[in-house]
Amino acid sequence: MQKKNVIVTGGAGFIGSHLVDKLLEEGHKVTVLDNFSTGRLQNLAHIKGNTNFILKEADVSDLGAIKEYFKGIDWVFHMAALADIVPSITNPLEYHQSNVDGTFSALEASRMSGVKRFVYTASSSCYGLPEVIPTPEDSPIKSEYPYALTKYVGECYAMNWAKIYKLPVISLRLFNVYGPRSRTSGTYGAVFGVFLAQKLAGKPFTVVGNGNQTRDFTYVSDVVRAFIAAAESDIIGEIFNVGSGNTYSVNRLVELLGGEKVYIPKRPGEPDSTFADISKIKKILGWKPEVSFEKGVKILLENIDYWAEAPVWTPEKIKDATKEWFKYLGAK
Questions:
Q1: Which of 23, 165, 248, 309 sits at a 20 to 30 Å CA gap from 48?
Q2: What CATH number has the domain bearing residue 95?
Q3: Averaged pLDDT for residues 297-319
Q4: CA of 127: how far to CAs of 4, 124, 313, in Å?
């Protein structure tokens, strides 16, 4: 296959850095744009000397500052975004600027430069409390909090740019991605970062509710393959779920990690189950997941030292950090 000139926005982040690794492995020339609001230089340190790799510290929402980097680019993977529920509730403007304005800027820079493919990183959180399990792409959109809304609005922009300007866009709605380099800091949120730091510290796992809720935990290397399959296809203006093909309870995760657990109150706005219907992406892009949940967790445990500096959450700290969550989402 012909080698491509590629931009990965947010390429110093969890998923982005894994995608950068794979693109470089395949011989592509990769430019990462990241403002390091959540990304980590550590995630890219091992490729610093690669002659096909360029790192630019830039805020993707600043169109004037980034548009020059898009000249001559074939593929754009737009991953730059702010995640987490709690800070999106307390700082909705910041999330809009990052996730909506940032997407607009990336789309415009891509349109002006005539990029060949634009792959948008969407979120399964747009489904809210899903009515159908497994959840297909045509399910109702019911965003429960600002993070989910801003990611969905970004997707709407991407699909509109495909329709109006014929920008070759595909959007991937990701379900509960996990793996090495998942976020270690920031406001209380992603379960793997929380649990792995607790395991290292010898603290009990803080299980929300009764732990029977299930999540479609999808291993990061499978997600990377989905992004590359999307870029290599000639499909335009389509949305695809990316999931593991199954759903797993939080109690099962604790069992695989090994350790004591304590229970904390169930949180409003969180579904009892996330489970992607992936029949569309399997049929159209020929993609399917390969890494089992058990294998993925085993790899994480082998790389657990990555979370040595992550914050260790206790029930008390979690209660304080999520009070705004309960305040705004609990009063329904």
A1: 309
A2: 3.40.50.720
A3: 91
A4: 34, 6, 28
* Dihedral angle sign, alpha carbons of residues 31, 11, 179, 116: negative
* Alpha carbon distance 161, 159 (integer Å): 5
What single-letter amino acid sits at 211?
G
- Apex CA 87: angle with CA 107 and CA 246, to 5°? 75
What is the model's pLDDT at position 131? 92
| Long-range contact pairs involving 160-168 (C-beta distance under 8 Å, separation at least 24) | 161/107, 161/111, 161/118, 162/236, 162/237, 163/237, 165/111, 166/236, 167/107, 167/110, 167/111, 167/115, 167/118, 168/115, 168/116, 168/117, 168/118, 168/236
Burial track 143-160 (b if 16+ CB lie within 10 A, e otherwise): bbbbbbbbbbbbbebbbe
Active site residue 263: no
Mean of pLDDT values over 168-191: 84
Provide DSSP, 302-328. HTGGGGTTS----HHHHHHHTHHHHHH
Residue 278 lies in a domain: no
Which residues 6+ apart lie within 8 Å of 313 measured at CB?
188, 194, 197, 198, 206, 321
Same domain, 234 and 263: no
The catalytic position among 147, 157, 219, 248 is 147
Q: Is pLDDT larger for residue 322 or for residue 61?
A: 61
Tracing tokens 């993707």 back to the chain, one arrives at 60
Instruction: For residue 68, count other CB atoms closer than 10 A to its CB.
Output: 11
Q: What is the pLDDT of residues 33-91, one digit of tens each?
A: 999 999 999 999 999 999 999 999 999 999 999 999 999 999 999 999 999 888 899 99
Structurally, how many domains does the chain consist of? 2
Q: Is the full-model pTM beyond 0.90?
A: yes
Q: Is 146 helix (H, G, I), strand (E, B) or coil?
A: helix
- Phi, psi angle pair for 169, to nearest 5°: -105, 140
Domain housing 225 = 5-177+217-242
**Within a domain: 185:** yes
Q: Which residues pair with 214 in a beta bridge?
A: 249, 273
